[in-house]
UniProtKB/TrEMBL annotation:
Keywords: Membrane, Transmembrane, Transmembrane helix. Its main location: membrane. The keyword Transmembrane helix applies. It comes from Streptosporangium subroseum. It is found in: Membrane. The keyword Glycoprotein does not apply. It comes from the Bacteria. This is DoxX-like family protein. The lineage of its organism: Bacteria, Bacillati, Actinomycetota, Actinomycetes, Streptosporangiales. It is a multi-pass membrane protein. The chain crosses the membrane at residues 6-26, 47-68, 74-94, 101-120. InterPro entries: DoxX.
Length: 126
């Protein structure tokens, strides 16, 4: 179980690091033109940048605390935070009538919940 949790946390960290970097460094107009990126027009540029920064912090929080053995309780907390972000993303994509993107967001939500559940209860660190 520990290996599965590490693998899923690593995959989620890679996804959120990439997604967060895109939101933080790519202009909002260019993000809006990407497939499934129309949602950024519903939010301010500042919100999109802040969301990108939070996603990067969440990605780091999934890996570094446990890898460095410094406050590993932050791993499930980061997973809960990313799950909350994905719940919001799923709601936004459902409202925009984009079911494929909503399903992808729900998949990431489920994986983040699995990591949180696993690290809080099944296979906690230390």
């Amino acid at each position: 179980m520990n290996l599965a949790l590490w693998i899923i946390a690593g995959l989620l960290a890679a996804v959120f690091l990439l997604a967060g970097a895109n939101k933080l460094f790519i202009p909002q107009e260019k993000l809006a033109r990407a497939p499934g990126g129309g949602w950024v027009n519903d939010f301010s540029a500042g919100f999109v940048k802040a969301l990108g920064a939070v996603e990067i912090l969440g990605a780091v929080g999934l890996i570094l605390p446990a890898a460095l053995d410094i406050a590993p309780v932050l791993v499930p907390l980061a997973a809960v935070g990313l799950a909350a972000i994905m719940a919001g993303a799923a709601i936004v994509t459902f409202r925009r009538q984009e079911p494929k993107h909503a399903l992808l967001n729900l998949t990431y939500l489920a994986l983040a919940v699995f990591v949180a559940w696993g690290r809080f209860g099944l296979q906690p660190f230390g």
